[in-house]
Every structure is written in C-alpha cells, then in structure tokens.
Design a protein that fits this description.
The protein is α/β, with parallel strands linked by helices and about 250 residues long. The chain is built from ten helices and ten strands.
C-alpha cells in the first residue's frame, strides 16, 4: 500500500485488506494537503491507500495556463489515471473539478462541495477585485478576522498565504462565473457516484433547499466545521469507509 503524506513525505506499507485502487485526497479553494493530515492517523489509512495531492497553484507549481475548474479537472483526471485511482475525496469547490468526461474517476466523496452559487462564499469574491494581489490581501485579512471566533480557520489561512496569488484569483473568478452559468450541484450529481458529507450548519440556505429538492446520497456530520477532516477526522474516516463499503 502506498501513502503519500503531507509535506511531500512518502510512506510505503502493506496492510491486509487494503484496496488495490487508491483514494485521492484533494483540498479546496486555496488550501493544501495539510487539511488531510489527520486522516492518516485514522484506521482508514490502514485499510485504504490514501494519496493526498496538492492542486497546481495551491501547494504544487501553478499551471502554465489559466487556473480554472476545467483546467484542474484535466489535471485531476491525469493524476487519477497515473495513480490508477477511481475514487476521490474532494473538498468544497474541488468537488466540481473532479468532473470531466472520460475521467477514470467514478466515485466522488464530496466534503461540502459547491451545490449553488451561494457556496462560493470564499472563492467567488475573487471576481470583485481587479488584481490577484488585491484579492489575496483582502482575503487574508478577512480570514484573520474570522480566526478570532473560529480557530479552525488558522490552518486554512496559513495555507492560503502560501497559495499562488494568480491561481487563487483565476480560480475564484472562474468559480463565480461557473456558478452563474449553471447549477454546480447538477454538474456534481451527474459526474459520478457521489456521497455528499456535510454539516447543515455550514451550508447556505439555498444549498440546503437544493439538497431537499434534489436528493443525493448524503451523510450529516453534526458539529463538524467546514474542514471536517481537520476537526472530526475519526468520524469522517468512519463515514468514508462506510460509503465505500456500501458499493
């Protein structure tokens, strides 16, 4: 079994009952693989091959062209093919980037992925700024204020501070435009077999209404933050294992 850990460390181990096809772990907007570090200390890492990958521009070198949901979907499909992976755990807006015709990804565990335009409450604000630097500075300032009442955001703010400003701005601007052209939840629902893991308290009312009107396979994690892999890794690991075992 091969496990790619945060900070570029690689660990090889053999565990009885491990899956032959690895699970890719992809962070969301401006984030990096540090959000998945706690999962490697759960039983899930002993029974499944976990590979945490930084997205281009967010921990990994930025793409040569524009960073968009489409370009990241191409990159992710290529990574899935290279690793022989068919399952991805994707956080927030990255859930949409897991969708691409012809991609080997057939299973998406979405951690509060975007369902409506209102879910782009972080990424979509990029379109309000004329330059990458202006957006990055304002976004970091916003996160600094949020940390005062939501300490879990401190790790996320640190990740964003290391992100490529142009990639951050381009992806955020594209996320808003994408959500204005179509309904993200509809794209996600038809892209693969999806399990949606969320805490209703973290979701906009519009997205909760969309879920009520468009039922999909869901798991509710009460008391979890938007980053359930950080503050509820054990419970999240259990639910991922249950979802995969039910196939």
């Amino acid at each position: 079994m091969r496990q790619v850990l945060p900070e570029g460390l690689t660990k090889s181990a053999d565990h009885e009952g491990g899956t032959s096809s690895p699970i890719l772990l992809i962070a969301g907007f401006g984030d990096n693989v540090s959000m998945y570090a706690p999962l490697f200390a759960t039983p899930l890492a002993q029974t499944h091959s976990l590979i945490a990958l930084d997205l281009p521009g967010f921990g990994a070198p930025a793409l040569e062209g524009t960073t968009s949901l489409s370009s990241l979907a191409i990159w992710l499909a290529d990574m899935a093919s290279d690793f022989g992976a068919h399952t991805v755990v994707a956080h927030s807006v990255a859930s949409i980037a897991a969708e691409r015709p012809g991609s080997p990804i057939s299973r998406i565990i979405s951690l509060e992925g975007n369902l409506t335009a209102e879910d782009a409450y972080f990424s979509g604000t990029a379109a309000d700024f004329e330059t990458p630097e202006a957006f990055r500075d304002a976004f970091l300032e916003r996160l600094t204020e949020m940390v005062k009442t939501e300490p879990v955001i401190a790790r996320y703010r640190e990740a964003v501070s290391k992100a490529d400003p142009l990639a951050l701005w381009q992806l955020g601007t594209d996320a808003r435009a994408f959500s204005e052209r179509q309904v993200p939840g509809e794209i996600l629902a038809r892209s693969a077999h999806v399990t949606y893991i969320y805490n209703p308290e973290n979701c906009p009312e519009a997205s909760l209404r969309w879920l009520a009107e468009n039922p999909m396979e869901c798991v509710v994690l009460d008391q979890a933050s938007h980053w359930s892999s950080v503050d509820q890794p054990g419970l999240l690991a259990e639910q991922i294992a249950v979802a995969l075992a039910s196939e």
